[in-house]
Amino acid sequence: MSNPFSKSKTDLARRRHLKSSAKLLGLVLLLGEIDIAWGAKILGVRVWPSEDYTRITLESDTPLPITQQILTNPDRLVVDVQGLELNPTLKDLVAKIKPNDPYVSQVRVGQFQPGVVRLVFDLKEPIKPQLFTLDPVAEYNYRMVFDLYPTTPPDPLMELVKSSAKKESALTKSNEEVDLIAQFATKKDSPKPPVAQAIPEVKEAPAQAKYKRLITIAIDPGHGGEDPGAIGSMGSREKHVVLSIAKRLKDKIENEAYMRPYLTRDGDYFVPLHVRVQKARRVEADLFVSIHADAFIESHAKGASVFTLSQMGASSTMARWMANKENASDLIGGINIKTQDRQVANLLLDMSTTAQIKDSLQVGNSILKQIGGFAPLHKGKVEQASFAVLKAPDIPSILVETAFISNPQEEAKLNDDGYQDRIADAILRGIKDYFSKNPPVARRVNT
Fold first, then answer.
1. Are the C-beta atoms of 302 and 376 separated by less than 8 Å?
2. Residues with Cβ within 8 Å of residue 298, at least 6 apart in sequence
């Protein structure tokens, strides 16, 4: 007869063994879960094409090392992302490359090695890539950014000259006619000119004749691309609203015989603050108008505002708050601080002049007066603060806050076609009023 006590001891040992095994299995499973949790996860992929450059952004929950190489015949950019496994979000990148992308024809994504994902960008032309990573900021986690610049960037001034050639020719002809009329008007006793030189009777000189050249207006829609700007309670994004207003203003300026517009961005992509200033200077702009629709911590804040640069501190707490918020756009939009352009930017942004600020205040007052004719104003005077985007040393520069997108009533107005059109009209009237009193000087010709 078997010993029941011995059997009991055997069962107890078996149970202990099973319990230990279960604990060990649980520990293995737990370690497996931890290992999975430690693996990097891609949170989103975004593509921002433009004539300036194409930006590709991969957002992840942890920073990831990347390497790159450029291949030719055909032109390709190969990027290897370490510590990553292929997932559906990454595969979505393939569908995000559109046919109208100026620089990328397609992208191929694959698991190159365990823990290494390879991205191959097939290019439409040779490019100069800038690859960099960004730490978490605002609503974003870690970002890997691939900026693909053309090796030969477009010349904005040449393109502007070509697009306005007919208008330039018409203005020149008009000025020649007026000069000829004035020439014969001062010679009362001179004999009549030959028939071939007969001047048509003109009661009044054409309006554009008082300007010796076209006036170039740089229109700067704030934010763009990775930087949405302020977001209203209905989901309106500042970057979309201000681009719409800027395009309306551009069209209105196109209809003026003696003006030509230039947009610092004409689509949904990010432009660093100092690049906006550089663009305006490259096209030799006579005026820089940055358009915004900002938010404040209090939803009842309302009214349009006009700002200029200040060298002596902000004119109000609100102005200082606004400037600090706008100056943070580079961090949100994603600027490559390692590029050499940063040194140029720092130099440029310290060169603002008293004369520039004086002229900016004049045009700012003209525009504020026009806006106040139909819309509520946040302040009845032009405010001043240290806005980085207004620091062009030789161009009068203003920033127009068209309304507060954080105010539900004003957000609704900002999405209204009629209101956008009236704001654009008011800005144009203010610009025309300023230049009627301050005609631009002739360009200095380099010899």
1. yes
2. 406
Q: Residues 320, 322, 323, 327: is their CA dihedral positive or negative?
A: positive
**Over residues 397-426, mean pLDDT:** 97
What pLDDT was estimated at residue 172?
83
Residues β-bridged to residue 237:
231
Query: In 301-410, at which residue ranges do the beta strands (DSSP E only) sit?
Result: 305-309, 383-385, 397-401
Of 309, 274, 2, 332, give the one whose Cα is nearest residue 141.
Answer: 332
270-295: per-residue pLDDT in tens?
999 999 999 999 999 999 999 999 88
Buried b (16+ CB within 10 A) or exposed e, 111-139: eeeeebbbbebebeeebebbbbbbeeeee
Claim: this prediction has a pTM higher than 0.90 = no
Residue 383 to residue 254: CA distance in whole angstroms: 29
Give the span between the Cα atoms of 92 and 96, in whole angstroms.
7
Q: Mapped to the 3 state alphabet, what secondary structure does 32-70 carry?
A: HHHHHHHCCCEEEEEEECCCCCEEEEEEECCCCCEEEEE
- How many whole angstroms from its chain centre is CA 12? 73
Residue 15 confidence (pLDDT) above 60: no
